[in-house]
């Protein structure tokens, strides 16, 4: 099956960069097909964290000593890496947060309460992760913002006509939508979403948690207003993520959390805010994780997004071909433009049982509702099993999955 | 699955109870009912209780959507507590919780022994909740509550 791997990505060599991939699980080679939940870490990321701790570490942005200055430089270099990754116009548009969830909460709290007015609406889609639903429920209840849901087709594609109709009354101030579904693998039509939303005066936030792992993102070309992603799905550490927003929006927005590092001056009576992005970065941040995120970004850039995207496409096609011929197996989500996240159900076997049996073969998949309960209800199912792919995934691992699923089906048949 | 075999968890008796549970279904009449949800995975179970004149559980029933482990556990639970006084059922649950955590059956209680096929779940920490979910619903129903509180 090696002919399916695109020549551009040397997966065998890439796998050597990920120490964990040589581990065995229950006596079998690890087949890790759960990268959409969190990706494994390359040596470059591991080394960046260890090297910082061993040779170059102090608190940042405040010490007038060598260690602090060097650590600040390393941390701030990641801001440049992230700006380059997203093609941001200005490095000050990169706000470090813990993860995508915190980024969306920041926007919901700060832009939602500070800029949106009661009576306005936020529009999301029917295939959002809970992290792009719950913050808007909280904003709705606290601030009188209406929440609208753009429907999807049974294939798992955004209904663009319905999407536009929901914008027509001009009340929607913000569209907050995934760029790639963590359940269905669907890529949403990002450029068209922005064009339509802007025509009705709405800003657009993309949840890029999944998309940025597989596709080159250019926020200026996309012309979106906010973009969020998390480091740990992009081969980086946990605890660090990015909110990008147009500078004029960040300037408009009040701070989210208050504390050290985000102020210009503090008296007992009042505080004034630091300039963006520091206005949004209260307290000592995830310094080591921030430094290592830079290593992850540079690692991905060195692989190259063209090769990464081609690899993902080939793996996805291979997976759909292998899995769809398994009797009783239903692939959930058949969007035209879809990527390396494949959810499925199997007659007679609950997703948990599938996951437990696959685990016995050393195969790691996710099972459950994938933090997308409303989507599960929309699709009329309780849970799915989900295989997801990364730059280090081999076609032979998908074959192992398909073979194991045949045995699962026999077992529960 | 191949070498070690999945049978330590999925014994034949588990598969039988999950495929064709004997105590599934919503009864026409019942004295108490409670739901249990596992918000982490979407599993749902509802337990229906009737009581005899002297307050014993009679013909407990359940309605479940979930994995083989949760459905088999609900069915075995119904068998284990049928005819028991509420306090006796609570004791069986205490024993079962220890079994699900350690794999060992702690007491000589014959009702707890009925649950032994589920002891293998202790090897799978992520699956223990699947096995205990129906029990939490049962405990809530016995307490006159409508919803099990999560663990």
In short:
Chain A has 413 residues and is an alpha/beta fold.
Task: Summarize the SSE layout with pairings.
The complex is a heterodimer of chains A (413) and B (151).
Chain A (H helix, E strand, L loop, with lengths): L10 H6 L7 E2 L2 E2 L1 E2 L10 H13 L10 H21 L7 E4 L2 H15 L6 E5 L8 H10 L2 E5 L9 H6 L6 E7 L11 H10 L3 E5 L3 H4 L4 H4 L3 E5 L10 E5 L1 H6 L10 E4 L4 E3 L13 H17 L1 H20 L4 E4 L8 E6 L4 H10 L2 E2 L1 E3 L4 H7 L4 E5 L6 H18 L1
Parallel strand pairs in A: 3-15, 5-6, 5-7, 7-8, 8-9
Antiparallel strand pairs in A: 1-2, 4-10, 9-10, 11-12, 13-14, 14-17, 16-17
Helix pairs in contact in A: 2-11, 3-11, 4-5, 12-15
Chain B lengths: L11 H8 L12 E7 L4 E9 L5 E9 L2 H14 L4 H17 L7 H4 L14 H15 L9
Antiparallel strand pairs in B: 1-2, 2-3
Written account of the structure:
The complex is a heterodimer of chains A (413) and B (151). In chain A, strand 1 and strand 2 form a beta hairpin. Chain A has two domains: 140 residues, Aspartate Aminotransferase, domain 1, CATH 3.90.1150; 256 residues, Type I PLP-dependent aspartate aminotransferase-like (Major domain) (Aspartate Aminotransferase, domain 2, 3-Layer(aba) Sandwich), CATH 3.40.640.10. Chain A is built from 15 helices and 17 strands. In chain A, helix 2 runs antiparallel to helix 11, helix 3 packs across helix 11 and helix 4 packs parallel to helix 5. Chain A has 413 residues and is α/β, with parallel strands linked by helices. Chain A has a seven-stranded mixed β-sheet with strand order 4-10-9-8-7-5-6, with helices on both faces. A four-stranded antiparallel β-sheet of chain A has the order 13-14-17-16, with helices on one face. Chain A has a two-stranded antiparallel ribbon with strand order 1-2. Chain B is α+β, with helices and mostly antiparallel strands. Chain B has one domain: Sufe protein. Chain: A (Alpha-Beta Complex). Chain B has five helices and three strands; from the N terminus they run H-E-E-E-H-H-H-H. In chain B, strands 1-2-3 form a three-stranded antiparallel β-sheet, with helices on one face. In chain B, strand 1 and strand 2 form a beta hairpin. The radius of gyration of chain B is 14 Å and the shape is globular. At the A-B interface, helix 13 and helix 15 of A face loops of B.
């Amino acid at each position: 099956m090696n002919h399916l791997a695109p020549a551009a990505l040397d997966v065998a060599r890439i796998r050597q960069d990920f120490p964990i991939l040589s581990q065995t699980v229950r006596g079998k080679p690890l087949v890790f097909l759960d990268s959409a939940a969190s990706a494994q870490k390359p040596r470059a990321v591991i080394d960046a964290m260890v090297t910082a701790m061993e040779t170059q570490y102090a608190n940042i942005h405040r010490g007038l000593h060598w260690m602090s200055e060097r650590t600040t430089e390393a941390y701030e270099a990641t801001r440049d890496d992230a700006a380059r990754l997203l093609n941001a116009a200005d490095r000050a548009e990169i706000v470090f947060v813990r993860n995508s969830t915190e980024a969306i909460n920041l926007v919901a709290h700060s832009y939602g309460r500070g800029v949106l007015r009661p009576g306005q609406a936020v529009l999301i889609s029917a295939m959002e992760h809970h992290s792009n639903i719950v913050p808007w429920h909280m904003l709705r209840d606290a601030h009188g913002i209406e929440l609208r849901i753009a429907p999807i087709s049974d294939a798992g594609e955004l209904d663009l006509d319905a999407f536009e109709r929901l914008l027509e009354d001009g009340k929607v101030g913000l569209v907050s939508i995934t760029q790639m579904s963590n359940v269905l693998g669907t890529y949403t039509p990002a450029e068209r979403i922005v064009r339509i939303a802007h025509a009705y005066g709405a800003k657009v936030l993309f949840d890029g948690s999944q998309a940025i792992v597989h596709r080159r993102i250019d926020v200026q070309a996309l012309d979106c207003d906010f973009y969020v992603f998390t480091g740990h799905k992009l081969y980086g550490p946990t605890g660090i993520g990015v909110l990008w927003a147009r500078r004029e929006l960040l300037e408009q927005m009040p701070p989210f959390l208050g504390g050290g590092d985000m102020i210009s001056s503090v008296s007992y009576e009042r505080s004034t805010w630091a300039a963006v992005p520091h206005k949004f970065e209260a307290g000592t941040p995830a310094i080591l994780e921030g430094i290592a995120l830079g290593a992850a970004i540079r690692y991905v850039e060195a692989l190259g997004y063209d090769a990464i995207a081609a690899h993902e496409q080939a793996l996805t096609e291979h997976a759909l071909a292998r899995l769809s011929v398994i009797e009783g197996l239903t692939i959930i989500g058949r969007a035209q433009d879809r990527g390396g996240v494949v959810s499925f159900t199997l007659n007679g076997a609950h997703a948990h049982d599938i996951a437990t049996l696959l685990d016995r073969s050393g195969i790691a998949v996710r099972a459950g509702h994938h933090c997308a309960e409303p989507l599960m209800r929309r699709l009329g199912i309780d849970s799915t099993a989900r295989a997801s792919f990364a730059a280090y995934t081999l076609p032979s691992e998908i074959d192992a999955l398909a073979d194991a699923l045949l045995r699962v089906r026999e077992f529960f048949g | 699955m191949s070498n070690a075999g999945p049978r330590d968890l999925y014994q034949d008796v588990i598969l039988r109870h999950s495929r064709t549970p004997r105590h599934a279904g919503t009864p026409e009449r019942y004295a108490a009912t409670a739901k249990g949800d596992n918000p982490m995975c979407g599993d749902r179970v509802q337990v229906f209780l009737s009581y005899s004149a002297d307050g014993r559980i009679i013909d407990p029933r359940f309605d479940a959507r979930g994995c083989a482990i949760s459905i088999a556990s609900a069915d075995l639970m119904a068998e284990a507590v049928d005819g028991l006084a509420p306090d006796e059922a609570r004791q069986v649950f205490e024993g079962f919780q220890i079994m699900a955590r350690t794999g060992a059956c702690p007491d000589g209680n014959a009702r707890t022994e009925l649950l032994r096929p589920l002891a293998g779940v202790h090897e799978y920490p992520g699956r223990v909740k699947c096995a205990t979910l129906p029990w939490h619903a049962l405990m809530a129903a016995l307490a006159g509550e409508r919803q099990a509180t999560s663990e």
